Amino acid sequence: MEPVAVNKLHIKVTTLSNVFTIYLSGNFSFEAHREFKTAYKNQLDNSKIGNIVVNLSEVEYLDSSALGMLLVMRDYVQAANKTLTLSKPSPIALRTFDIASFNKIFTINL
Amino acid sequence: MLAQTDATSLEMIGSVLISEGHELISVIDGNDVKGAMQQNPDLVIMDANLPNISGFECCRLIKHDENIRRKPVVLLMPTQDSTAWARFAECGADDFIEHPLHPHVIKAKIKLLLHINELYLRLDAGHRQAEQEIRLAKHMFDSITKRQSKEIDFLHFWGLSAGHFCGDLFIFERTPEGHLHVLLGDFTGHGLSAAMGALPVSDIFFAMTLKGCGMTQIVSEINRKLYEIMPTGKFCAAAFLRLEVDNSKLDIWNGGLPPVLLVDRKHKVSIQCESFNLPLGIVAPAEFHSQTQQFDMTGTDSVVLCSDGLIEAQNAFGESYGEARLAQVIGRKVKELSIFNRIKSSVLSFLEGLEPHDDVSLAVIHIN
Strand B236-243 and strand A51-62: pairing? Predict the structure, then answer.
């Protein structure tokens, strides 16, 4: 077997009605923090958007800095009076959220 | 420093340099380049073909010398020599100039290279600063663990760092009545940012334990403190254990660490104490609920705690160590090896010398 290269984080965004969805795939860790912030930053002031969804179905790796980034995002989204949903977490993301009891402070849609 | 044999080139480049306000160190022989470097030039412009030692070779030597490899080197390349480019590519030069020489081109090159030099200097300064901060963080971290009153022989801790030092905190202390408090903490971030959280956490832990405070109180106070001082997104995943003085009962508060494992005499994992709490420092005191679980210790031989760095440690093939493997290793009784050593050597052989992405820490409490 060949050693596996470390994946980057790939981000794709879509808007449907008043929902802005960020699709994440690959490694969600500290290196991606600027890119991740850029993905949602502009929607905070967008009055046409009321809900921001982060889809984690293709996340292969997630560490505590990813949790940190989500916490920061949550602060911003709450301040902008919008809702934030974590949607379809991959098994590894779900396990991480479970251990961190993130369901206590995030809406997680399986 | 200008190393040129051709008088015309020497004069043209030299006059541009002087008109730009630079001091000139002239060299016409490859043998003299080394000596000229000791005068600490800011920029090196060399003819690729010099007598005795070629410009390519001089450049290679400069770039392999730890002390001077950051000096920008530009080579004056020969015309109509296609083999020269292969040598250019592997000698490490920063840039090139070709004939025919034009003063404005030379000026532009010089400007560019001095800019690169400045970037290198700033990079070096940044590295030095980062290293200083890491040394400071390590010093502070070590000073925390030195506060342990004394070693407790049935507590074992192992940390493997993803970087300069392991930022996972393992501290323990007995209350005045003799109950044992143990805390394993995994801070977001590394180095200085981890050490900064560790200081207030350990201060509170030791002060309140020695005063005889209960674990719920201590955990709540640590949460309050971290919530107050840490920015959003920074927190401490931790497990706090309280072992009754007679070893009969164990209370566990787990917020964000992998399940704490209770292992019986047959080395089977009898209970997994999952995390039901948010890590410390995320929510305000009003929203902080400390859920502890209590376990009867009859039948329990050892307690195993680890940070997620251990569970998520990846080998060269991208496989994670995993919770299943950990349970397996615990269950596989090996005569001379304690559970602690078994897990430790299993993780090390799994990694095969690879540095983990995240600090790995393991703590085992041997109850009897």
Answer: unpaired
CA distance B267 to B299: 11
Q: How many domains does chain A have?
A: 1
| Contact (CB<8Å) B308/A64 | yes
Containing domain of residue A33, as a range? 9-109
Chain A residue closest in CA terms to B318: A4
Of B189, B277, B317, the CB nearest to A101: B277
The model carries a pTM of 0.81
Complex ipTM value: 0.88
Q: List, in order of start, the domains of chain B with CATH numbers.
A: 2-124 (3.40.50.2300), 147-366 (3.60.40.10)
Interface test with B, best of A99, A105, A108 (most B CBs within 10 A): A99
CB-based contact, B358 to chain A, within 8 Å:
yes
User: Does pLDDT of A4 surpass 50?
Assistant: no
Query: If we measure between CA atoms, which residue out of B304, B366, B367, B363 comes closest to residue B168?
Result: B363
Q: In whole angstroms, what is the distance from residue A79 CA to residue A82 CA?
A: 8
Determine whether B195 is exposed, middle or buried from the number of CB atoms within 10 Å of its CB (0-12, 13-18, 19+): buried
pLDDT digits (tens, 9 = 90+) for B108-122: 888 888 888 888 889
**Domain assignment of residue A2, yes or no:** no
Residue A48 lies in a domain: yes
pLDDT confidence bin for A5, thresholds 50/70/90: very low
In a domain, A3, yes or no: no
Encode pLDDT of B129-141 as tens digits. 988 988 888 888 8
CA distance B252 to chain A (A): 15
Count of CB atoms situated within 10 Å of the CB of A71:
23
User: pLDDT of B296-318, one tens digit each?
Assistant: 999 999 999 999 999 999 999 88
* CATH number assigned to the domain comprising residue A19: 3.30.750.24
